[in-house]
TrEMBL record, chain A:
Record carries keyword Transport: yes
Similarity annotation: Belongs to the leucine-binding protein family.
Protein name, UniProt field: Branched-chain amino acid transport system substrate-binding protein
Domain Leucine-binding protein residues, every copy: 51-396
Keywords: Amino-acid transport, Signal, Transport
Gene3D superfamilies: 3.40.50.2300
Record organism: Nonomuraea jiangxiensis
CDD domains: PBP1_ABC_ligand_binding-like
Keyword Transport among UniProt keywords: yes
From TrEMBL, chain B:
Pfam families tied to this protein: BPD_transp_2 (PF02653)
Main subcellular location of this protein, as a coarse class: membrane
Organism for this UniProt entry: Nonomuraea jiangxiensis
A GO term for molecular function: transmembrane transporter activity
InterPro entries tied to this protein: ABC_transp_permease, BCAA_transport_permease
Leader sequence residues: none
TM annotation in the entry: 29-54, 61-84, 96-114, 140-159, 190-213, 225-250, 256-277
Keyword field contains Membrane: yes
Name assigned to this protein: Branched-chain amino acid transport system permease protein
């Protein structure tokens, strides 16, 4: 191979200087002009024509790419529905969605840029507690209302933030209450006597399992196994082997997704089927879950969930239809949660009649919003005051089995049948 | 006792699969001093193609490696000719940047074409086990282990018993000497890169059955594979096997007798301990430039 003389970098070449100068000038001009455009307009007419821009950063790549992409779908379906009905306050809605690559550093940079440089009118939250924790701090510092579709870890609400609103019915530690209540409703001889609690060290999964363990221990259910594992754990056969030797009545796993699929497969491989199986969020991933574990193995698996496809809540049927039309599949819970977060923001803006962050905040603290997840209202720290649904896989479908007033069926599969 | 035997059996089975996945990485490094960060993405790419073939035609994922192995051989060869050959002779860190870029491109393309969802090939045996006395041997892992032994055996044979293999090893050990006796350095390197990439054919097929995956799963795999080859000694095939088996056993034994939370960490503690005593890894040879 013949060596070639190194080419000089473009900026040092005299001929390149002309276009670069022109580019720089154009850029300065563009910046100056756009800054003019963003100054609050005095005339009402200008306000009406300009769309409302909502800034969002989502994990579209990296670890949270899966829920992040679902959240994007939820937001976009909401935007299209709202715009088709004439927008909010008579203005069209525009979403400015950027990718934070599931990184805490990037999400902070993204929201800072959306607020200070892009000067968006409103914000919507990102996905997972991990990312919403730093992102909500940026919003709070800039005094902007931050409605988040996910992020129920207890630490979110110990900071006395006043602009933060969690648009799900309950936080992580309260999620398991509906399952514990169901166990309490059983005759004493049908309750589990022993239980095992493996959980991923995840701010959304572990608090659910920890709170469940405490509540069940108070009911007299003996804990035979309780272990935390990191997110990159992929092999669950050793856990399954240990569980098979301890034979707990109930296995309650703090499962995000792969770990939930991994444990079910491993339990079957090791030949142990508990009488009750509860997993936090893995079973809510509809067909991805049933494809992963095999649809026959889903029978009787419990989980708690913020949303159900069959619920008769405001806009739920329209949302499900729009999602099915656009993506040809049943909507994921994450998409519904994002839709609900947008509904919350919309309700506040329409009630207040203007984009005034402090008024929006005060209105949300004082009122209940009806969303497709059901009615939502908040404590002063942004913590929601409702309760989750207890869902169960039955014959390859998801049914709501608790609380009784919201159940879609009276049948509860208990005990869980052995693996097929 | 049965519990201990079960843990060891599971550890060995998983170790065999890890060894297969790591073999391509160590082979490529051995010949070219290139750390192929895209090896994890190659595995996920194959897993995706395998899943697609299985989903469309019902062809068994492990049998599908008869299709994916030549595909990866071709992709590896093209990657070398079009990309890697351009940075030959520059610092090794360039190869990390280049292959990392390639990994990102593969991830992006998979995101756009296959979508951002977990996939998992579930042939009839995916959650079944062979049972001997009270010990379970998960079928998918057994098949994966057998395939791994087969592929590693072929690799070992090719490297040690054929002229192609001798040329590859000669180019590894003394590039100038090999060139003097008529070994084409570029041709050999392209071949080694292609063979290393082709191992992802079987590795990715097994991955698609054993673990749910999505386009970004490759980060998790490449970090594990790098750990294995560093422990075994970069460039050494027996080293990769030893590193993989140690990882498999460390994971299962720690999860069974210690704590599940420590199961991935213990392996990295082992790496640190080994590197303190043997900086070249278990089977790594010290190069002349290291001694200087």
């Amino acid at each position: 191979m013949t060596a070639q003389p190194p080419r000089p970098p473009a900026s040092q070449s005299p001929r390149a200087r002309g276009p670069i100068l022109a580019m720089a000038l154009a850029l300065v001009a563009a910046l100056a002009l756009s800054a003019c455009g963003q100054r609050p307009s005095e005339t009402a007419a200008g306000e009406v024509t300009r769309p409302i821009v909502i800034g969002v950063s989502l994990p579209l790549t990296g670890d949270f790419a899966q829920p992040g992409s679902e959240a994007k779908r939820g937001y976009e379906i909401w935007r299209d529905m709202v715009n088709a009905k004439g927008g909010v306050l008579g203005r069209q809605v525009e979403l400015k969605i950027v990718d934070d690559a599931s990184s805490q550093d990037t999400v902070v940079a993204d929201y800072t840029k959306l607020i200070t440089q892009d000067k968006v009118d409103l914000l919507l939250g990102t996905f997972s507690s991990l990312l919403n924790y730093p992102a909500s701090a940026v919003a709070e510092k800039n005094r902007m209302v931050f409605v988040e579709p996910a992020g129920g870890a207890p630490d979110m609400f110990t900071r006395s933030f006043t602009y933060l609103f969690f648009a799900q019915p309950a936080t992580a530690p309260r999620q398991a209450d509906v399952f514990v209540n169901w166990i309490k409703s059983l005759p004493a001889d049908e309750r589990p006597t022993t239980a095992a609690y493996p959980s991923q060290d995840d701010p959304f999964a572990h608090p659910v399992i920890k709170s469940m363990q405490e509540q069940l221990e108070a009911l007299g259910v003996e804990t035979v196994y309780s272990e935390l594992y990191p997110a990159d754990t992929t092999n669950f056969q050793s856990v399954a082997s240990t569980l098979a030797s301890k034979k707990p009545d109930l296995v309650a796993q703090g499962a995000v997704f792969e770990d939930g699929v991994g444990l079910v497969r491993s339990l079957k491989q090791l030949g142990f089927s508990p009488k009750m199986l509860f997993q936090t969020s893995a079973p809510s991933n509809s067909s991805q879950y049933s494809d992963g574990v095999g649809v026959a193995n889903t029978e009787g698996v419990f989980y708690t969930v913020s949303w159900n496809e069959k619920a008769t809540t405001p806009l739920n049927a329209e949302f499900v239809a729009a999602y099915r039309k656009a993506y040809g599949a049943a909507p994921a819970e994450d998409a519904a949660d994002a839709f609900a977060a947008a509904q919350v923001l919309q309700a506040a803006v329409e009630a207040v009649g203007a984009i005034d962050q402090d008024k929006l905040r005060d209105w949300l603290h004082a009122n209940t919003v009806r969303t497709l997840l059901g009615p939502l209202s908040w404590a002063a720290n942004g913590e929601p005051k409702g309760s989750f649904l207890l869902a169960q896989w039955q014959s390859g479908q998801v049914e709501v089995v608790g609380p009784p007033e919201l159940a879609t069926t009276k049948t509860v599969v208990n005990p869980k049948p052995g693996w097929k | 006792m049965a519990h201990l035997v079960q843990a060891i059996a599971l550890g060995l089975l998983i170790g065999g699969v890890y060894a297969l996945m790591a073999s391509g990485l160590t082979l490529i490094f051995g010949v070219m001093q290139i750390i192929n960060v895209a090896q994890g993405a190659f595995l996920v790419l194959v897993a995706m193609v395998t899943w697609w073939l299985w989903n469309r035609t019902g062809i068994d994922p492990i049998v599908a490696s008869l299709v994916t192995t030549p595909m990866m051989f071709g992709l590896g060869w093209l990657t070398f000719r079009l990309l890697i050959s351009r940075i030959r002779g520059s610092s090794p860190s360039m190869s990390v940047l280049l292959t990392f870029g390639l990994a990102l491109v593969i991830e992006g393309v998979l995101n756009l074409t296959a979508g951002n969802k977990f996939k998992s090939a579930t042939p009839a045996y995916f959650e079944e086990s062979f049972r001997v006395a009270s010990i379970s041997f998960p079928k998918a892992q057994v098949f994966g282990f057998v395939a791994a032994v087969g592929v590693l055996g072929v690799l070992y044979y090719v490297l040690n018993r054929t002229w192609t293999g001798r040329a590859i090893r000669a180019a590894t050990q003394n590039p100038a000497g090999a060139a003097l006796v008529g070994v084409s350095a570029a041709g050999t390197a392209a071949l080694a890169f292609a063979i290393g990439s082709a191992t992802a054919g079987v590795g990715g097929s097994i991955l698609s059955v054993l673990y749910p995956f999505f386009p970004a799963s490759h980060y998790e795999w490449i970090s594990r594979l790098l750990g294995i080859v560093v422990l075994g000694g970069l460039g050494s095939l027996p080293g990769a096997v030893a590193g993989a088996v140690i990882l498999g056993l460390a994971e299962t034994l720690t999860a069974t007798y210690g704590s599940l939370g420590w199961s991935t960490l213990v392996f990295y503690l082992v790496i640190m301990a080994v590197l303190l005593v043997r900086p070249q890894g278990l089977f790594g040879a010290r190069l002349r430039e290291d001694a200087a």
